[in-house]
Amino acid sequence: MKKIGLLASLILLGNVLFAQGINEGKQFLNYERYQSAEDVFKKLVASDPNNVEAVYWLGQTYLANQDIVDTTSAKELYQKTLQANPNAPLIMVGIGQVELREGKTTDARNHFETAISLAKKKEKEDIQEAVGRANVLAKNGDILYGIAKLNEAAEKDKKNPEIYNLIGEGYWKLNDGSNAIINYQKAMAIDPKDARASWMIGRIYETQGYNQETIYMKHYLDAINEDPNFAPVYYWLYGYYYNRDVNTAADYLNKYIAVADNNSKNCYAKASLMYVSKKYPETVSQADACITEAGAKAYPNLYGLKAYAYDKMGDSLKAKEAFEQFFSKVNPDNIGPKDYATYGKVLLQFPGQEELAETNINKALALDTVVKNKVDFLKDIAKGFADKKNYAEAGKWYGRVLAVDSAFGKTDLFYAGYNDYRGDNYKTSDSIFQIYQQKYPDDPLGWYMGGHAQEGIDTSGALGLARPSYQKVIDIADTMQDKSTVKDKLIPSYRYMVAYYYNIKGQADTALMYNNKILEVDPADATALKTKDALESVIKNRAKAGAANKPSDSTKPK
Length: 558
Known about the structure:
It contains 29 helices and no strands. It has helices spanning about 5-30, 35-45, 50-65, 70-85, 90-100, 105-120, 125-135, 145-155, 160-175, 175-190, 195-205, 215-225, 230-240, 245-260, 265-275, 280-295, 300-310, 315-330, 335-345, 355-365, 370-385, 390-405, 410-420, 425-440, 445-455, 465-480, 485-505, 510-520, 525-550.
């Protein structure tokens, strides 16, 4: 048997330990323990600065933390290594991934294709996987191109579950849940304990509107059973129960903290439980303590949490300041529609900030794919203005509900039209109630409110704009056996007719006819009784005057 020399044995041992280090760091990345992964890869790079695999994964760690993406550190690391190793395909892919984040998509594609062409046969699939990873994970990546490269890598390396996980994530980002699940299942066929695949399948079922909780929850619990150290699933469940059951949320948060890196994100999560428990001053105090402890590495969402707490406390100025800090520190990719929406709502409290407020609100509406969320937010803004008796603004925001929800109904139309009416926007109110009338032609409310809006337009009443609308209220009521159910709309409609025919048309007899209809509905109506006496007197006096002016027989022409 051939003996292995001491030097060769040491080299072999070193390679084994190095490979173990790479795998350990990648496992930390999979667990989203970014600080632990960074520590591992930094040690490997320190021991061999030109080991491109260690350098590549250290750069991936800088790029992977979606809470604080460190593009600058990754770029400097890759550029420095590429200068010393100008033909290193893996580092070229890393450079390309940075370029994608910078929006330099053409430069990135050139680096990807060059890296693939330079790759040796035995490393080709690794480079294809890296190119696929870059395009699936990076902002501005070409996901379909990335999936194509990952499929090419899978043809050569059929036992790598990470490839199928990446393909699954690519399809998920393309909103193709079916193909995403197929590839996650392929990953699990290779590694039945692939907790990430189980977790992601659960997320797909949950986030794509699959309303059977037992289905997606099963996959989350499967992930925990497959790998109890897989931290992301605990954090996801903490978020899931956050607004449902604060005690269960706290339980999952504690389980997350037990297996996650110790950082200010954990501190944020604890503070957020105070927020959901409506302990807003305590939330601010805890968030401030977290920020002080973490310093420059403070989790950006801590500032957002303070902003939300101040908003709930009614302190718009401090909420605005905290939101500004949050937006200046957070990765823009992580700003959600609710963040833009709430910031926009806060800005509306400050004169001169209306344009910026609407910009943020429009971003929220564009990002949120759930119509109900958009509607709820717009109604919240509108109600705030209505509560302050700023009816013109309330009408404007209730009106936007009609634009985002094609299934709007009577209530939505009423609030939009009514607040426009109260805000003296009579033409807009009339337009909205015309829609109401078209959708619900047998409902007297739409015609009644339309008449009100038309009275606002026709202030003198000379044009009689409201007459057809009020007549429609009367016509609808005439079809009803019990007119008392629409008494509040019918009597004002009759009164308009009385005034219109007497004041504008000079037809006292027609005015009296409508006035008598009021008394048919309410015989004790004091106004109608007085008006009846007055109109009858006018008619009588006119009749007498007419008789007096009638020619006598002696004056008739012979």
